[in-house]
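In response to the reviewer comment on reproducibility (Comment 2.3), we provide here a single inverse folding case reported in full, input and output, so that an independent group could reproduce the run without further information from us. The structure tokens appear first.
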């Protein structure tokens, strides 16, 4: 999806959202603003945000008093984030892109045109692949093992 023009968070979240009863259009709308480090602010990578959203669909908590549920949910997000960080060195978009030191975000919210040069100059395709592998091995394996149903 990423190399077809979709954003990083959209590419990860939308690929698996249907497993949780979320339609493609809704998944694209929900995850789009999280891309490019949340609204192109270059903060937490959109793939990490997408993994967190997917984990919440199954392991999320609804009761604010459920401390054990919160802990389980947070632990899953940390495991997935740590797995991405171990392969790419960071989960921050600006660091993954190698933005100059001191540059916290790009001036413009305007996305760049997707061209072959764009894809060749960025690590994002590989990061999206890593996130998809993490979802499949850590989230989906955990979700669909045993007698649990999605």
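Designed residues, in position order:
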């Amino acid at each position: 999806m990423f190399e077809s023009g979709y954003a990083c968070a959209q590419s990860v979240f939308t690929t698996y959202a249907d497993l949780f009863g979320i339609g493609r259009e809704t998944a694209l709308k929900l995850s789009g603003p999280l891309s490019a480090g949340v609204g192109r602010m270059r903060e937490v990578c959109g793939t990490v945000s997408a993994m967190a959203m997917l984990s919440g669909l199954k392991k999320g908590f609804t009761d604010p008093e459920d401390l054990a549920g919160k802990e389980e949910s947070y632990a899953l997000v940390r495991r997935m984030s740590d797995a991405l960080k171990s392969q790419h060195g960071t989960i921050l978009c600006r660091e993954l892109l190698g933005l100059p030191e001191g540059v916290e975000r790009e001036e413009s919210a305007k996305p760049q045109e997707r061209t072959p040069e764009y894809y060749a100059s960025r690590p994002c395709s590989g990061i999206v692949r890593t996130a998809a592998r993490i979802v499949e091995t850590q989230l989906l394996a955990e979700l669909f093992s045993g007698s649990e149903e999605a």
